[in-house]
Amino acid sequence: MNPDKKVIIDELLDRVNASPYVLVVDYTGMTVPQFSELRNRLGAAGAQCHVAKNTYMRKALAEAGLPDIGEGLVGQTAFVTGDCEVFAAAKAIKNFEKEFKKPEMKIGILGDAVLDADKLKAIADIPSREAVLSQLLATILEPSTRIARVIQKKFNPDADSATAEPEA
Question: pTM to 2 decimals?
Answer without folding.
Answer: 0.74
